[in-house]
Design goal:
Elements lengths: L1 H7 L15 E3 L13 H12 L4 E4 L1 H7 L8 E4 L3 H7 L3 E4 L5 E6 L2 E7 L7 H6 L20 H7 L7 E4 L4 E4 L3 H6 L2 E2 L5 H7 L2 H13 L2 E2 L1 H4 L2 H4 L8 H12 L4 H10 L3 H4 L1 H9 L1 H20 L6 H9 L3 H10 L4 H19 L4 H16 L7 H7 L3 H13 L7 H10 L2 H14 L20 H4 L8
Parallel strand pairs: 3-6, 9-10
Antiparallel strand pairs: 1-8, 2-3, 2-7, 4-5, 5-6, 7-8
Helix pairs in contact: 9-12, 9-13, 15-16, 16-17, 17-20, 18-19, 19-20, 20-22
Bound molecules: adenosine-5'-triphosphate and magnesium ion (MG).
Length: 468
Amino acid sequence: MLKKLFKSLRPPVRNAKHAHSTPVVLNSNQHPIQRGQISRYAISVVERLQNAGYQAFLVGGCVRDLLLDVEPKDFDVSTSATPEQVRAEFRNARVIGRRFKLVHVHFGREIIEVATFRANHPQGDEEENSNLSSRNENGRILRDNVYGNLEDDAQRRDFTINALYYDPSNERILDYANGAHDIRNNLVRLIGDPTQRYQEDPVRMLRAIRFAAKLDFDIEKHSAAPIYKLAPLLNEIPSARLFDEVLKLFLAGYAVYTYELLVDYGLFGQLFPASAAALKQNPEYTDDLIHNALVNTDQRIKQGKTVTPAFIFAALLWPALPARVLRLQERGMPPIPAMQEAAHELIAEQCQRIAIPKRFTMPIREIWDMQERLPRRSGKRADALLDNPRFRAGYDFLLLRESAGEQTNGLGDWWTLYQDASDSERRNMIRDLSAKDDSAGAPRKRRRTNNRRKRNPAADNSPAQSND
Ligand code: ATP
Ligand code: MG
């Protein structure tokens, strides 16, 4: 309701003469945000800083989300006080940050992040006159720690919709970049020249996708146009930062749409080169498997359930395995070692691009290993597998593979029944297996034929089946 009202209000007319230095001001009756929607800790941080004589505002995602009737993830504060000055005001504050200093003010489990106003780095002549170069040859900003005033701070932010400042003391919003206009029109638009802003920080391309997916906004056409061409700049970004960004991309509850946008804009291949190659080689199967995994991820997040990043990475990379297993087998490696080696290589290669920490790569391997073990159910093996802490993830992954068309001979259904069966039913199920054939213990041998590539892609894409 309020959001609609906000969208229908005519925006105040900007004084063109002072387009850059005078913000559009939205008074409390011109926007729907109410103080009650804001974390009281965030308000207390702002008021404390203001009482100490500094400028302070709520800024960024929280203002944007409140205008859109979305619950903010967190509340960020922007201030004229330096990190040291902020820390001096609060007992519960810690200065953090490598790229630039920030202050975290702790209130129990809630953290209010306070950042000092910063400015864009000087470019061209201005920069040549300074003795430290802050950009690399592609224009990427290497240091981002120049303090500035409020207006500088607005201009250095990424998107117009992220550059709105809310002052809880008078309930006004300051808009230096026409962000309110873009919120009304559902647009993600970079502040300034898009190519330059992406060159300064290529991660902004990923952020554009993330906000477009999360808010169901379009990327404004000038901001969208350079992405495809500039996507390779992501290569320069440290793998640890990309890991953080990828988690944000896939864990925000809009992973399916995010994935589609990443593919359309040529960014997916920069993040997951092997998966993108699989997508080319085997489009239908690969796309189905990834898509279904992400549908499931989004659903779980909407239901408030936990999602493990390992499962998502396991799914994203799985379609890239068969080609590698095959390559190793063609070099004479037996199936099981080939599978192990392929998994190892693939993860190691992926970690060069995105630094997936060990606490996630281990479970990826375990989920994949489970795929080799789930077909082997004879004797006491089935019960031992049920007790395995990775059983559930392994079983879910099996169903995922089946949903993408992999032929597993009814293995998923079998495990579904087995889990709910009584002891005697279980015994019968195991007996039936060994009566039928020995597939429970030893899946059939994979034939090496010359026309392998032409066979059913689903069967081709089952690295687990090659482990017999
Ligand atoms: P959310 O927290 O909902 O994901 P957000 O907009 O708050 O979205 P953060 O990553 O928390 O995103 O960043 C806070 C603010 O800092 C942004 O709103 C933006 O103004 C600014 N910002 C973040 N990253 C960049 C960047 N790479 N370049 C310029 N400004 C940025
Ligand atoms: Mg935020």
